[in-house]
Amino acid sequence: MRPKTLAQMYQPGVLSDGSRTQYGLGWKVSEDRHGRVWVGHSGGAVGGTTQFLHHPQGKVSVALLTNAQEVKGLESLALRLGEMLLPP
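-> structure tokens emitted (88 positions)
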């Protein structure tokens, strides 16, 4: 996929009132404590919860899989782990 296409997918949406969402085209857009942009997606089903985050510029991804439903805090844990993999 072309970099320009990916950049468009990772852009947060803009609502009709001009406010921005935290969601691009199928990707949630988050920032870590250093202001770096991460894109990701969470999921879950009976017996499991998942979190995937990707830092496109740093080429780092974090995937968390659990054997428990509705696990809280996976996104913040994934962000903290991702921060450890990139220079400050």
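The mean pLDDT is 89.
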